[in-house]
Amino acid sequence: MGLDMMVERNTSDQEEREEEEEEKAAKNRYTKGVKHLLEIGISSVPKDYILPPQDRPRVTDKDLEHGSNFCLPVVDMARLRSLSAADRIQALEAVDKACKEYGFFQVVNHGMNEEGMRRMMAAGRRFFEQGFEERKKWMTSDIRGKVRYGTSFNQINDTVFCWRDFLKLNCQPLQEMLPLCPSSPKDLRDEVVSYVEEIQVLFLEIMAVVLEALGVRKEEALMEEFEEGSHMLIVNYFPPCPNPDLTLGMPPHSDYGFLTLLLQDDVAGLQVYHRDRWFTINPLFNSIVVNIGDHLEIFSNGRYKSVLHRVLVNSTKPRMSIASLHSLPFSSTVRPAAALIDDAGRGRLYKDTDFAAFLNYISSHDANRKSFLETRKLTPNGQRG
Ligand SMILES: O=C(O)CCC(=O)C(=O)O
């Protein structure tokens, strides 16, 4: 080999090594979260956050600010509680319609303490507003951790990163999680306890209503399982983004549990996929957004479907949301309800599943869209689809 060729080859090896080093350093920066990227002074989104053109949102900051004309069905819990048996049937039909047509509804007069909700949101916000040195104490990529500060959607497998940081608290049992929950800001633990206790009561009430709407007898044993059921509280923080047209706060995904109860602040960002289009959900003051998760799709044998949703970011305002994901206990099996399997008509459409299968799946796959649920489907005669 001539001297010139050797020099050229050494130079390109060196360049490759430098590129690899730079890529590693960048990934290391990304795992610290998007708030950290802003803190170190980035002024445009790094290339790993840029979605292919077909997946980018086509909504501007202005559209988000003006709000959309789309409204989710609203369920008034106070009214539902006070109705006569005959009127209740009608109200349950409306819940059934919302679950079938949208997979989402909004709950008002839910009975949660309004001031407590505000304080929980404020304490969560102060957690993210602290310096990185404080936040990073809870940073881990262990998806089984009871408390986890992290970023993006599924940071181990994401091919494109998302503009979101989060604090995930595995709240069942609450007493085991609490000593591990961040103690700064000082009031966070107290606010988490109050919020978790109240939202759990609301979940049980809404779950009972949904079972009634589905036409499944509200068996005591099942309700007891929900009382002991899994409860993941996810505090989401979406900082302002320099290029909101190129990326997303969260990609299109469905939630894994039975129901998710979502509290959002007053900044729009949540979008729901409905009739082949994305619709923005205007934040409705003091309401809770409820959506069907994959486990309820399985339990209902496909009568109710989990629905894709995603989150947009904007260039000026941070946005926060607090999602409560509820399901059966981690050790339980989720399967179609016997009452909803009709041997002569609709056979069993889903395989049994459990959390272990889900966690194994997300540790090795891109879990966006409804990819996990797809692996649980059977053809109508009981074979894998
Ligand atoms: O921030 C939102 O509005 C939605 C959050 C969400 O989809 C989630 O946490 O799974």
UniProtKB/TrEMBL annotation:
Keywords: Cytoplasm, Iron, Metal-binding, Nucleus, Oxidoreductase
InterPro entries: DIOX_N, IPNS-like_FE2OG_OXY, Oxoglu/Fe-dep_dioxygenase_dom, Plant_2OG-oxidoreductases
Biased composition (Basic and acidic residues): 1-14
GO molecular function terms noted in the UniProt entry: metal ion binding; oxidoreductase activity
CC per GO annotation: cytoplasm; nucleus
Annotated Pfam families: 2OG-FeII_Oxy, DIOX_N
Cofactor: L-ascorbate
Domain of life of the source: Eukaryota
Fe2OG dioxygenase domain ranges (all copies): 229-328
Its biological purpose: Involved in the regulation of shoot development and salicylic acid (SA) homeostasis.
Annotated spans, Disordered: 1-28
Listed name of the protein: Fe2OG dioxygenase domain-containing protein
